[in-house]
């Protein structure tokens, strides 16, 4: 395609100069452009193809960036990026130095709010709408949220707040529900059923008919009938969104520009909270993605659009996610009490097989991380053994639930923390850098950091047997390639092991960085310990290593601040042992998107970087003068 129209669009102002009749062609070019560029870079696909017409219509009708568009999750913003001056930068999408796969305030004035985690858009748009009122500015704030993201409590907290006036002020916020009847996996829960009934029209007509029969033979009936011709849902019971105080319009076809544009124009000119329900198809316009929206949610790398995603010729290495999925099924076979829970990440968390084999013990609770944790706590109270499979970054949402509902009551809930450490292309919003720091400070919580695939399986087993809350963290992708032993053996609780005996320097590795540590240690002739547990920490091993070496180096793929290295220094202080400690881990800054191996190298966490840091701190042939108070 030669992109005749698209080439002339360097900003939404250019788009608004086009005659309405050209918009269909522009949308077709935009869809083709997005498909072509994702096929070269990888990235989210289905959601972007599904929001092409909506993006064109929004920038055509609204005065962006003056009017604020807030994209929920933000994984559907590629068409928006293309139309807002970033067409030529799509080639660097999600790569080091390139543009982000999510909206970023520092990337463009059209990205009014940074997202990545879901269900924040209505709150943010409401904040912007209220700010406009307070500042006397006449502009609209639009939240675009998917049906999956709408399931989160936060979205409803925002509706609850935005639908009523505050001190006489009512924000001009428009919520657009982009209903494609999909989350990453097929959608779940009562809201999904409700939206389906709204789409079939049954709720709306039932509500009307019900109201009419209630009003019949009263003077209100004729009034209601006439009023209904002009307004919807004000006299008769309306949709749930109307009950929240929004003027509900829809459902309309979100791919039909002739329906979208006049409806948006109409809503743009209305005051107060508006709600537009549009219906779209995930993957629209690309047959393969339409047919299999789960598979085509995102492309992990390049692909030929004519062929679609193909299995690589050589089978890829087993990922930690697969190790977890296999362990979960094996454990469920052994223990009938096991229940697996995912907040809307069945595929990403490796639970497809478990779902198939144990449907009654599988719970996809929707995008509801807080609920997933308290739900697990409730199950644990009754003797069930819940396993919450959750990405490290998304567990941040459920911190209070972890403390208040699980840990204080010392309930045996196993948290299988996937995507621990840097995740690569998704960048800072999805990085699991903080979980060691935020879990180890919780009383009763145990924190396990397996070093490889086999250790991961054994750590999950060990955690599952423990009578209290446990997190087992493991990174995205594959590890050192240590094939898990089928037989499960509980690890010695709170004990690490020495993996290499060397001199002067001892490296205390937590998690998968054990392997680059071993490589670096070969060159430095350093000792290496595989610590396995951040909590309970093997304080005896720490003390022994401190006594027998001139300096310690702690190593983790989590933030240095408050992390495993901090646990070691706390233990040394508590024991009155004075020894120089170099803490290596992720820096106190948000690490950008890009190839994970390159990012780890930039953070100095590959073998060469670890060696360089040790040499820089302690010299090439480390000569460390120990404090006389050393233990
Ligand atoms: C808090 C949080 N939990 C989970 C995710 C992972 N996630 C990203 S997109 C998505 C599905 C969203 O579905 P929907 O909002 O309907 O958008 P669609 O993909 O259908 O366009 C999920 C679960 C996330 N980004 N944020
Ligand atoms: C947008 C979002 O949150 C998910 O689609 C996420 O990008 C999935 O990440 P993984 O590819 O690591 O499962
Ligand atoms: Mg959806």
From TrEMBL:
CDD domains: TPP_DXS, TPP_PYR_DXS_TK_like. Residues 318-482 form the Transketolase-like pyrimidine-binding domain. GO terms for biological process: isopentenyl diphosphate biosynthetic process, methylerythritol 4-phosphate pathway; terpenoid biosynthetic process; thiamine biosynthetic process. The keyword Acetylation does not apply. The keyword Zinc does not apply. Pathway: Metabolic intermediate biosynthesis; 1-deoxy-D-xylulose 5-phosphate biosynthesis; 1-deoxy-D-xylulose 5-phosphate from D-glyceraldehyde 3-phosphate and pyruvate: step 1/1. The gene is dxs. This is 1-deoxy-D-xylulose-5-phosphate synthase. Homodimer. Mg(2+) binds at residues 147, 180. Catalyzes the acyloin condensation reaction between C atoms 2 and 3 of pyruvate and glyceraldehyde 3-phosphate to yield 1-deoxy-D-xylulose-5-phosphate (DXP). Its EC number is 2.2.1.7. Belongs to the transketolase family. DXPS subfamily. Binds 1 Mg(2+) ion per subunit. Binds 1 thiamine pyrophosphate per subunit. It is an enzyme of class 2 (transferase). InterPro entries: Dxylulose-5-P_synthase, THDP-binding, Transketo_C/PFOR_II, Transketolase-like_Pyr-bd, Transketolase_BS, Transketolase_C, Transketolase_CS. Keywords: Isoprene biosynthesis, Magnesium, Metal-binding, Thiamine biosynthesis, Thiamine pyrophosphate, Transferase. One of its GO terms (molecular function) is magnesium ion binding. GO terms for cellular component: cytosol. It comes from Pelomonas aquatica. It catalyses: D-glyceraldehyde 3-phosphate + pyruvate + H(+) = 1-deoxy-D-xylulose 5-phosphate + CO2. Signal peptide: none annotated.
């Amino acid at each position: 395609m030669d992109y005749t129209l698209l080439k002339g669009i360097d900003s939404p102002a250019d788009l608004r100069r086009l005659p309405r009749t050209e918009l269909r062609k522009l949308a077709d070019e935009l869809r083709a452009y997005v498909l072509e560029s994702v096929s070269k870079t990888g990235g989210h696909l289905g959601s972007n193809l599904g929001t092409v017409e909506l993006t064109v219509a929004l920038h055509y009708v609204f005065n962006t960036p003056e009017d604020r568009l807030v994209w929920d999750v933000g994984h559907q913003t590629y068409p928006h990026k293309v139309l807002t001056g970033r067409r030529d930068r799509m080639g660097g999408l999600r790569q080091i130095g390139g543009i982000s796969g999510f909206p970023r305030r520092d990337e463009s004035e059209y990205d009014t709010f940074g997202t990545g985690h879901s269900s924040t858009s209505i709150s943010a748009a409401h904040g912007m709408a209220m700010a406009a009122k307070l500042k006397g500015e006449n502009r609209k704030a639009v939240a675009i949220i998917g049906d999956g993201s709408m399931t989160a409590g936060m979205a409803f907290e925002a509706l609850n707040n935005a639908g009523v006036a505050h001190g006489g002020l009512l924000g001009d916020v428009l919520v657009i529900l982009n209903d494609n009847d999909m989350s990453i996996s097929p959608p779940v829960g009562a809201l999904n059923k409700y939206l389906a009934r709204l789409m079939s029209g049954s709720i709306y007509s039932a509500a009307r008919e019900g109201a009419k029969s209630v009003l019949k033979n009263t003077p209100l009936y004729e009034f209601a009938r006439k009023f209904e011709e002009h307004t919807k849902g004000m006299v008769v019971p309306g949709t749930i969104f109307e009950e929240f105080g929004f003027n509900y319009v829809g459902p309309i076809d979100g791919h039909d520009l002739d329906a979208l544009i006049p409806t948006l124009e109409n809503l743009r000119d209305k005051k107060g909270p508006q709600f537009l329900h549009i219906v779209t198809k995930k993957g629209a316009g690309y047959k393969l993605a339409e047919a299999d929206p789960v598979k085509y949610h995102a492309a992990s790398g390049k692909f030929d659009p004519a062929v679609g995603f193909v299995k690589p010729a050589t089978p890829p290495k087993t990922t930690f996610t697969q190790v977890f999925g296999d362990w979960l099924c094996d454990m469920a076979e052994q223990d009938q009490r096991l229940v697996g829970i995912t907040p809307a990440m069945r595929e990403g968390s490796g639970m497809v097989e478990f779902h198939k084999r144990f449907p009654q013990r599988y719970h996809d609770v929707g995008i509801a991380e807080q609920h997933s944790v308290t739900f697990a706590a409730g199950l644990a109270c009754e003797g069930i053994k819940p396993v919450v499979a959750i990405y490290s970054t998304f567990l941040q949402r459920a911190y209070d639930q972890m403390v208040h509902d699980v840990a204080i009551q010392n309930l045996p809930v196993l948290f299988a923390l996937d995507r621990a450490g840097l995740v690569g292309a998704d960048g800072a919003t999805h990085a699991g850098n903080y979980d060691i720091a935020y879990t180890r400070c919780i009383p009763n919580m145990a924190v396990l950091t397996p070093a490889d695939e086999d250790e991961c399986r054994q750590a999950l087993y060990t955690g599952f047997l423990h009578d209290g809350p446990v997190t087992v963290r493991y990174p995205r992708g594959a590890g050192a390639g240590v094939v898990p032993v089928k037989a499960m053996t509980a690890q010695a609780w709170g004990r690490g092991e020495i993996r290499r005996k060397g001199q002067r320097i001892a490296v205390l590795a937590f998690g998968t960085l054990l392997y680059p540590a071993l490589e670096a240690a070969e060159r430095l002739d350093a000792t290496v310990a595989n610590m396995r547990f951040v909590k309970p920490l093997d304080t005896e091993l720490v003390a022994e290593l401190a006594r027998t070496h001139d300096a310690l180096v702690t190593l983790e793929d989590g933030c240095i601040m408050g992390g495993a290295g901090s646990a070691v220094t706390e233990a040394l202080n508590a024991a009155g042992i004075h020894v120089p400690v170099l803490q290596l881990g992720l820096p106190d800054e948000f690490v950008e998107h890009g190839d994970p191996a390159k990012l780890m190298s930039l953070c100095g966490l590959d073998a060469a970087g670890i060696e360089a840091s040790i040499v820089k701190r302690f010299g090439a042939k480390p000569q460390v003068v120990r404090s006389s108070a050393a233990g």
